[in-house]
Write a structure and sequence with these properties.
With about 300 residues, the chain is of the alpha/beta class. The chain is about 25% helix and about 30% strand. The strands form 3 sheets. Strands 3, 5, 6, 7, 8, 15 and 16 form a 7-stranded mixed sheet that branches. Strands 11-10-9-12-13-14 form a 6-stranded parallel sheet. Helix 6 links the parallel strand 12 and strand 13. The protein binds NADP nicotinamide-adenine-dinucleotide phosphate. NADP nicotinamide-adenine-dinucleotide phosphate binds next to helix 1, helix 3, helix 4 and strand 10.
């Protein structure tokens, strides 16, 4: 089968498309024919060596898949069923014709989505789902989502709105109208806004890290919650009275089933900026690394 792999850590040019042996499912795992693979920042962080695992090179790439079940397990989806799911971190292997992943990590592909759109969902939407759950977001809470137009951000704003929260989200000027279309109550230009001058938030979701996490502490009300995704909670900037969590996404087929229902009901829109062929995986990494993607990038197989 074809697979995008890499044999040393480095820039996008270390990615190679080559023939590899078909993977063999372990106990509890499905074999899935991959129709599309989602691209996430963790992919290029893995390629650069910031996210490592204990397997030998060449290493597989990617965590998001949508495809067709080729072999299954008792109680699992039927052979031939269309599914989408997330491979468990830290072992990638989605940018390839066939992949293996736990049956518990997949759900039926939302019927309203193409395979490419479905592959855009798992890791980013589960991250948003688990972050909002960790912060116990409920109706009426004031929630700030940084980078609301990004992969995680565009799911987070819609899921928070669905929960009944009042949602503020940051983006560059060209993405503010997009945020409005997603239902964001207060789209904010991240280059000009002074969020600290406004009313504090019950929950802030930091999808950027660094200076954004640092500034976020002052945007949370006393008793509120900061959730950070790209990096650990920076104790040097901790403010008293604020609960802070770093969420690390985990596969969850049951949550994906519920997210799929929201997608099929029209409550959640999936934004795919670009679908590139598998041969263009390096280009997808280059674009993702620039940090300006609206919604998601996907590789079509
Ligand atoms: N802990 C976990 O389990 C977990 C899971 C998923 C993701 N993550 C991490 O969370 C981060 C976001 O992931 P993602 O998939 O949403 O990334 P993404 O889709 O690549 O994010 C792109 C968006 O980021 C915005 N952006 C870029 N620089 C920014 C800045 N300095 N301030 C505010 N916004 C900025 C851009 O918006 P504009 O163009 O509108 O400015 C763009 O729409 C990544 O670091 C990723 O590795 C962690």
């Amino acid at each position: 089968m074809r697979a995008v792999v890499f044999s040393r850590y480095g820039d996008e040019n270390v990615l190679e498309l080559m023939e590899r042996p078909e993977p063999t499912p372990a106990d509890g795992e499905l074999l899935v024919e991959v129709k599309a693979a989602g691209v996430n920042p963790v992919d290029w962080k893995h390629r650069e060596g910031a996210v490592r695992n204990d397997r030998p090179f060449p290493l597989g790439m990617g965590w998001d898949v949508a495809g067709v079940v080729r072999s299954t397990v008792p109680g699992g989806p039927a052979v031939g069923e269309a599914v989408y799911g997330m491979l468990p971190l830290p072992y990638g292997g989605a940018y390839q014709d066939l992949c293996v992943l736990p049956a518990s990590a997949v759900a039926p592909k939302p019927v309203s989505l193409s395979y490419a759109e479905a592959a855009a969902v798992p890791l980013a939407a589960l991250t948003a789902w688990q972050a909002l759950g960790t912060a116990e977001v409920t109706a009426g809470l004031r929630v700030l989502v940084h980078a609301g137009a990004g992969g995680v951000g565009h799911f987070a704003v819609q899921l928070a709105r669905h929960l009944g929260a009042h949602v503020t989200a940051t983006a560059s000027a060209h993405n503010l109208e997009f945020l409005r279309r997603l239902g964001v109550d207060e789209p904010v230009d991240r280059t000009t806004a002074d969020l600290a001058a406004g009313e504090p938030f019950d929950v802030v979701l930091d999808t950027v890290g660094g200076l954004v996490q640092q500034a976020s502490w002052r945007l949370v009300r006393t008793g509120g919650t900061l959730v950070t995704l790209p990096e650990s909670v920076n104790e040097a900037h901790r403010l008293p009275g604020i609960t802070a969590h770093r969420v690390i996404v985990t596969p969850d087929g049951e949550a994906l089933r519920r997210i799929g229902e929201l997608i099929d009901s029209g409550a959640v829109h999936v934004e795919v900026q670009t679908v590139l062929p598998l041969q263009k995986a390096a280009e997808a990494h280059r674009i993702s690394r620039e940090g300006r993607v609206r919604g998601k990038l996907v590789l079509g197989l």
